[in-house]
């Protein structure tokens, strides 16, 4: 899978944690956003939302990992574009359920609010769960058809 990691300025310093947490899954990762907070050019969540949609809609990547301080700004920015199905992922359970139920192509992470001790470990666990199940497979089993029809 081709994955774009797109950090905005307030969460630029968490970029290294995201890249490290993605190591070992066998995906091709494109690190295209801010690599540190306050760098230039300074990208906001408005910018990174547009970039995420651009990469998905031009088929340059299969999946986008973005976020901002709370995850809300990037989520709202990227979801205004067609063909983007983004989930707000705070925990490994969120990631596991989002993949199965929503089958999306983008996630938004809260990279400042609530990102404390072992935040990097939570990222790794979240990615493990995100990629551990078939996208769009449905959960629970009896809701599978309804969920697939709703996409």
Structure description:
This protein has 151 residues and is α/β, with parallel strands linked by helices. 38% of the residues lie in helices and 16% in strands. The longest helix is centred in the middle third of the chain and has 13 residues. The mean pLDDT is 95. One of its GO terms (molecular function) is isomerase activity. This is Ribose-5-phosphate isomerase. One of its GO terms (biological process) is carbohydrate metabolic process.
In short:
The mean pLDDT is 95.
Distance between the termini: 21 Å
* Structural domain count: 1
Q: What percent of residues are in strands?
A: 15-25%
Backbone CA Rg:
14 Å
CATH superfamily: Sugar-phosphate isomerase, RpiB/LacA/LacB
**Which regions are unreliable across 5 or more consecutive residues at pLDDT < 50?**
none
CATH architecture: 3-Layer(aba) Sandwich
List the helices and strands and how they pair.
Elements: E1 2-6, H1 15-22, E2 28-31, H2 45-57, E3 63-68, H3 72-78, E4 86-89, H4 92-102, E5 106-110, H5 119-130, H6 144-150
Parallel strand pairs: 1-2, 1-3, 3-5, 4-5
Helix pairs in contact: 1-5, 2-3, 4-5
Question: Keywords for this structure?
Answer:
single chain, alpha/beta, RpiB_LacA_LacB, 6 helices
């Amino acid at each position: 899978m081709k994955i774009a990691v797109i950090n905005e300025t307030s969460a630029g310093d968490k970029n290294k944690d995201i890249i490290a947490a993605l190591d070992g899954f066998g995906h091709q990762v494109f690190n295209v956003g801010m690599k540190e907070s306050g760098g230039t050019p300074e990208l906001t969540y408005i910018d990174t939302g547009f970039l995420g949609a651009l990469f998905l809609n031009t088929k340059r990547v299969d999946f986008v990992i973005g976020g901002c301080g709370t995850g809300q700004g990037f989520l709202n920015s990227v979801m205004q574009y067609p063909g983007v199905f983004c989930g707000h992922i705070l925990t490994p359970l969120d990631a596991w359920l989002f993949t199965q139920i929503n089958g999306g192509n983008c996630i938004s992470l809260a990279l400042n609010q609530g990102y404390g001790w072992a935040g990097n470990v939570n990222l790794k666990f979240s990615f493990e769960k995100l990629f551990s199940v078939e996208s769009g497979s449905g959960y629970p089993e009896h809701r599978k058809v309804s969920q697939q029809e709703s996409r």
